[in-house]
Amino acid sequence: MLQSLSVAAxxxxxxxxxxxxxxxxxxxxxxPGFKVSRARxxxxxxxxxxxxxxxxxxxxxxxxxxxxxxxxxTAAVDQIFTEGELENTGNPLDLAVEGDGLxxxxxxxxxxxxxxxGSFRLDQNGRLVTLDGYPLLPGINIPQGxxxxxxxxxxxxxxxxxxxxxxxxIGQVQLVRFLNPAGLMPIGQNLYLExxxxxxxxxxxxxENGFGVIxxxxxxxxxxxxxxxxxGLIEAQRAYEASSKAVSIGxxxxxIANNLVK
Length: 262
Hints:
Oligomer: single chain
Mean pLDDT: 92
């Protein structure tokens, strides 16, 4: 009976983790470039009191074994890198990737982070930066007095300088992709860091060699369904209640056993 208490407790812990993951998904229902997460579980070790195929007589074998599981554990929390819907913002500095690829961001410590959030703005030096002021890589600098910045599907950035009618190309936005983007390390601020699990970064030009195209004036919204998240939240609550009920029943059974009158 003590074993039943610990087994049920692992179920409660697992559903707590699932609820935390779902709560984070719901909290980011309006976060551009956010990728929904899913908690994944595995069963724990088994106590094998009798193995299947054990010989029960000189001429017979038991067809099934007797194995008792010890509960569950959280194996991983995956991020699902499917593409979210694109929302037209009308802001020429907002960029979205339709297809495969992430933007490169220069961090204050010199490292490179990656994001699907294309909410870019200009800083005091005319650089294209994130909402936290981190520059886009390769650097894009808009000259003072430039007008009508345009970003083509291949990432080519052009502006009109002074009285010129023909746009001048000032740079190109590059994209990066990974063999396993789910292996990237989220660090907040809509950013990810490279990891061994993601594989080496592959840098390329938008619309070429399988990379997605860049859409100016759009933002990629979260790839989640609020309805699906709410259903998952209800399922987690019911599973938690069931595990807590098993704890309560195990405790009652132990109490009855302890109070037996010899």
